[in-house]
Specification:
With 212 residues, the protein is of the alpha+beta class. The chain has one domain. Strands 5-1-2-3-4-7-6 form a seven-stranded antiparallel sheet. It is globular, with a radius of gyration of 17 Å. It starts with a helix and ends with a helix.
């Protein structure tokens, strides 16, 4: 019986979507300046990116309509039911971890004083070249599910501040978590990170703390 259940679970997981995919970078110019300040933010078990809004607003105009006055936007990817729930239950937690579910992106308007805005969160600054930054932006853009006109799909309001949920690509499950999403974003931005088992916020923060 255990063998049958294991085979069923493996079959389900191998059929899951591992999107969004890591973005392959263009060749890096030698000695290119790292002029783009990006932040990785950890809220308890969850990590995401805080990035300057200008470039991604140009790429995804709908974000400009929603967050046009904000200098930064925080992006996080996660399980649709768990992330949007008003109350976290054990059933939601088990489902999010062990059963493939739809995903969402949580976008939040963030002011210039990022550390003051997130006083209880762990924050790591990273510095990217233009090429690396463009690649990270492409990864985040590719994380949004698009409608037939190429527009992103708005869902319910977000969970804090001026925020919004959007429909995302990829299945959320044990081996494709919010922190794995952050790891894939870092890989897209040129970091030499093995994304396979970057499933917890500590695995992300430990990697970054060893880099800086």
């Amino acid at each position: 019986m255990k063998l049958i259940l294991s085979i069923i679970l493996i079959s389900i997981l191998t059929a899951c979507s591992t999107k969004p995919y890591i973005v392959k970078q263009d060749p890096i110019t030698e000695n290119e300046a790292r002029n783009n300040d990006i932040y990785v933010v950890s809220h308890e078990w969850h990590t995401g990116f805080v990035i300057p809004s200008k470039l991604i607003i140009n790429t995804l105009p709908t974000l400009g309509q929603r967050f046009g006055d904000s200098p930064y936007i925080e992006f996080g990817w996660g399980d649709k039911g768990f992330y949007q729930a008003n109350e976290i239950t054990s059933g939601l937690t088990v489902q999010a971890i062990f059963w493939p579910t739809e995903s969402v992106i949580h976008a939040v308007a963030v002011p210039n004083r990022i550390r003051r805005y997130f006083p209880r969160s762990e924050i790591v600054s990273i510095y990217l070249t233009d090429n690396e930054f463009d690649s990270l932006i492409k990864f985040i853009e590719n994380s949004f599910q698009k409608n037939e006109n190429g527009g992103i799909i708005e869902l319910k309001n977000g969970i804090y501040g001026n925020s919004q949920f959007y429909k995302a690509v990829g299945d959320y499950y044990l081996m494709n978590t919010c922190n794995k999403w952050t790891a894939k974003g870092l890989k897209s931005a040129g970091f030499d990170i093995d994304t396979t088992f970057k499933l917890t916020k500590d695995s992300i923060l430990n990697f970054l703390n060893n880099e800086y």
